[in-house]
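A.,

Following up on our hallway conversation. Structure tokens first:
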């Protein structure tokens, strides 16, 4: 079941815990920042 955006917004506003799919949808819609870390490439000159 896909969570409604209004439910996700309410949970974010009330600082409630989000489920995995809720968090993924919130990131996808721009409601939460992504936690993906960019890998640095070691470049030797």
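Then the amino acids I'd put at each of the 45 positions:
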């Amino acid at each position: 079941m896909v969570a409604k955006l209004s439910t996700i917004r309410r949970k974010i506003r009330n600082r409630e815990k989000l489920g995995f799919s809720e968090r993924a949808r919130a990131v996808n819609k721009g409601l939460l920042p992504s936690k993906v870390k960019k890998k640095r490439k070691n470049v030797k000159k």
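The chain has a mean pLDDT of 85. Curious whether your intuition agrees with the design.

B.
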